[in-house]
Specification:
Number of strands: 11
Oligomer: single chain
Shape: elongated
Order of helices and strands: HHEHHEEHHEEHEEHHEEHEEH
Helix content: 40-55%
Radius of gyration: 21 Å
Strand order of the largest sheet: 1-3-2
Strand content: 15-25%
Number of domains: 2
Structural class: alpha+beta
Length: 232
């Protein structure tokens, strides 16, 4: 039976991906990223038990094959799974192999991990949760790392007293994904992220701690913050 060009191409693509996953060190790197958190090349090299140069070659291969993507944040470069489809495929293979998704264990002190400032906007678990909520309820649309407010988002922000037009006129990014160094997931940065922090401070949902970048946010105030931005 003749093999069509499309089928041959699919076979070759599948074989290439299988080869990328089959190498033990690369498989360990991929599995460690299934928790949704990003990691540096150094962290991945330790997890995979390989040297820095070997890790670099593995990461280059995984990026080239479309399994990983790299995010530059300050002086660091963080690696993440490239797509939800990549994560789903790996999880399916783990199920067949009889294993479950690995857990992420942060080492950041609890008060800084919960809520803190990141330059002029909010970071930590609260900020990551708020970021995810704004995307899930479609107040924000992701346009390749830069965010745009939808009509619902503009209305919601205006109701909270945030002047969207003024923010958009500033000589800085309006809204963007900022990788959280404790959670290794994104929180909201840019002018909009700064406005959200200032709103939280004005409403006393968050209070600055005097001796650090930590923010004090009680469970009740966290609920108020999330509710203000559309949580049911």
């Amino acid at each position: 039976m003749d093999v069509t060009p499309a089928l041959a191409s699919a076979d070759a693509g599948l074989a290439q991906l299988a080869g990328a996953i089959a190498e033990p060190a690369r498989a360990r790197m991929l599995c460690s990223l299934l928790d949704g958190h990003a990691r540096t090349a150094t962290e991945l090299s330790v997890l995979a038990e390989v040297g820095a140069s070997t890790a670099s070659a593995h990461l280059t291969r995984l990026c080239k094959d479309g399994l990983l993507t790299v995010v530059a944040q300050g002086k660091h470069r963080y690696y993440r799974l490239a797509s939800a489809e990549a994560a789903q495929a790996l999880e399916a293979l783990l199920v067949v192999a009889g294993f479950s998704r690995p857990l992420f264990t942060p080492s950041t002190p609890d008060r800084l991990r919960h809520a803190r400032t990141c330059y002029d906007h909010m970071a930590g678990t609260v900020a990551v949760a708020l970021h995810d909520q704004l995307l899930a309820q479609q107040w924000l649309l992701d346009e390749g790392g830069n965010y745009r407010l939808t009509e619902a988002g503009v209305i919601g922000m205006a109701a909270l007293g945030i002047d969207v037009a003024l923010l958009a006129s500033q000589r800085r990014r309006f809204a963007c994904a900022c990788l959280d160094w404790s959670e290794r997931r994104f929180h909201l940065g840019g002018a909009l992220g700064a406005a959200v922090l200032q709103l939280a401070l004005r409403r006393s949902w968050a209070e600055r701690e005097l001796d650090s970048r930590a923010l004090s946010i009680t469970p009740a105030n966290q609920q108020r913050l999330m509710a203000a931005f559309g949580a049911s």
